[in-house]
Amino acid sequence: MTATVQTPTGAAQTMVLNMGPQHPSTHGVLRVVLELDGETVVHARPEIGYLHTGIEKSCEAKTYSQAITLTDRLDYLAPLSNNLCYCLAVEKLLGLEVPKRAQYIRVLLTELTRIGSHLVWLGTHAIDLGAMSVFLYCFREREEILKILEMVSGQRMMTSYFRIGGLALEPPPGWLEAIESFVKMFPSRIQEYEDLLTRNRIWLARTQGVGVLSAEDAIAWGVSGPSLRGSGVAYDVRKFFPYSSYDEFEFDVPTRTEGDCYARYLCRVAELRESLKIIRQAMPKIPREGPIRSEAPGIVPPEREKMKTEMEALIYHFKIFTEGFSPPPGEVYQTIESPRGELGFFVASDGSPKPWRVKVRAPSFVNLQALPKLVEGRLIADVVACIGTTDIVLGETDR
Amino acid sequence: MEIQDPEHIPVVRKLREWDPQAIAEAQLFRGELTLVLPREDLRRAGEFVRSDPELQFTFLSDVTGMDRFPVEPRFEINYHLLSMSRRERLRLKVRVFGSDPVVESVTSVWPTANWHEREVFDLFGVRFEGHPDLRRILMPEDWEGHPLRKDYSVEGYR
Known about the structure:
The complex is a heterodimer.
Chain A: E1 15-19, E2 31-37, E3 40-47, H1 55-60, H2 68-71, H3 79-94, H4 100-128, H5 132-153, E4 162-163, E5 166-167, H6 175-197, H7 201-207, H8 215-220, H9 226-229, H10 237-240, H11 261-285, H12 304-309, H13 311-322, E6 330-338, E7 341-349, E8 357-361, H14 363-369, H15 371-375, H16 380-390, H17 394-398
Antiparallel strand pairs in A: 1-2, 2-3, 4-5, 6-7, 7-8
Helix pairs in contact in A: 3-4, 4-5, 4-11, 4-16, 5-6, 6-11
Chain B: H1 10-18, E1 25-29, E2 32-37, H2 42-51, E3 59-67, E4 75-83, E5 88-96, E6 102-104, H3 113-124, E7 127-129
Parallel strand pairs in B: 2-5, 6-7
Antiparallel strand pairs in B: 1-2, 3-4, 4-5
């Protein structure tokens, strides 16, 4: 690996430094092999697979409903995003329509998840670059979001709250009040983070001009999400291919042109405000009453009361929970805008109750491939900034 | 979902004009267009749909492998493309036999295909000719076997 070259600093050869897979700043089990000339990175090679648990293979051994619980574990900072994309894919395969009430609730909770995910990104990115207080402030707000998710789904993180056809459970009384108080409290907190970072000399020095990615490179390397929008390309799946009634909500897609870490920071902070906008619109939109799941005998289980009194409902319940339901043979590719970029689920059915193939197009996997482009020619310290700005989650990178 | 004859969709028309043999099959399911291409035509057709100013499929979203064992041709590789300017998606599909699982790499067309093709190689054993760095990506480098094949047990081996 060490080449005998005349490097710019006059050294006879480069040095190979291993970063990870155990490292506080790689945000998970990521290994980056750095070839250095002094402090300058000549070549960077990310190595992944340390968190590979065979989720896609496991999906083939489970029914369509059972696989939902596996999807939580992909992008574990935004579990509801994974749930949503998978459920939308299977609903598309089935040709199933989800009731509006469930769609609006899905939008609200998915945007709340986006905020929660961006808070982790901001906190960890800031602490990597030395701003330690920001980490605790972000997690203080995230705690409120996790409390809301626990109230609604019973789980702080691995929610599995969305099901094929809608939601798993009726949201409990008081949930909208909890979200209301979060929405009232949060804008001043975003301002707090901005006061600490946006015009901070150290932050600017560590992020401006660092990790520049051109729009052309971003598209060629399949980069999506805030990393793509920070480079000037205003692509957001919610606007281009609206799903789950997102076209009924008004929100902007923050875009910058500089393509550096600072631009991506500004994009994501602006997205926090946009998500709040969507949540504020969703709250009055959600009908107080109505179905939370499609009416689809044989696919969506009947209500428990009906199951206990009607023979047909009992038989449907039994078939669904022992055998599962069988979509028609065919394949679909469903994408959503996850906090990290374009998340895609390719689901292929062979007409049996278990999926033949589930492929997860993980934005972190694709965005990470562009890391060498951000980092080569820069210093080791910039590698930390660039990994943070890419906002990767190893769960979805490795699956 | 409007039922539309695939032949009227611009990308199908343009590809047939460019090379009548390029498309073996055109399928429309749940509003998604899939074009099955002969293996030899993949890279050229990919280059065409990327660079043609009326198509502009510049974004390769995903490359997915699938094992249809015991049906032959066994391996199916799907390329999910996106044209941002025209807000259109497209799936190109190539099928290869288990006895000859080789496809031309499209890294020269879409650089992002690099890791995707490595993953298909790692998990299915399909080789990509012309790939600059074809080696395993998720499994350890000394692993034997290709885990996502249907004749590979879900419990795995030690």
